[in-house]
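User: Hey, quick favor. My workstation is busy. Could you predict this chain's structure for me?
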Amino acid sequence: MPLPLPEPPAFGEPVPQTPSPEVLHFLARRRSASAVNLTEPAPSPAELDALLRIAVRVPDHGKLSPWRFVVLSGEGKAEAAARLEALASGRGDARAVAKLAKLKTPPMAVAVVSRAKPGLDIPEWEQQLSAGAVCTLLLVGAQAMGYGANWITDWYSYDAEARTILGLEPDERIAGMIMLGTAKEPPLERERADPAALTSVWRP
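Assistant: No problem, here it is.
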């Protein structure tokens, strides 16, 4: 699809806060697609560049950029999946092997890597939340482009050997694997939480 993104504002340039009813309408109907229901095409290089440009505009206390990206597609993704499958098979873990279908099937995955640093003025928890916000914007941005997307983690996000295969440092974690492609069919709406049941108003 065309990428009608404006040029990013220059540092210090005013950024008007204008209403965007189309965005609200889209968010009110946002729905993830199943990872195993994603097929080609995936975002093009230009579209992926635009998605990453959108994703890094998340709130980031202290301007630390406590996250980075690992893109898996084509032969690279197939090789990563094969190595993860060998790891799980070597342990005799058939369940872990089966779960790799969510990684193998979509044509593209973007690992959002949290690299929160302890001991700073900015709490580590806030840095991790920023990485989660990156996952959300990637997910929403891809769906706004018309692609199917799903945010998953699965066992290889938490397994030390698996994280090494994916190129992570020992102090890094996967905040989310954003699976990208084109949904074979529209996802069905699921049950949603009732905000009224989850909301209270503080009173002195």
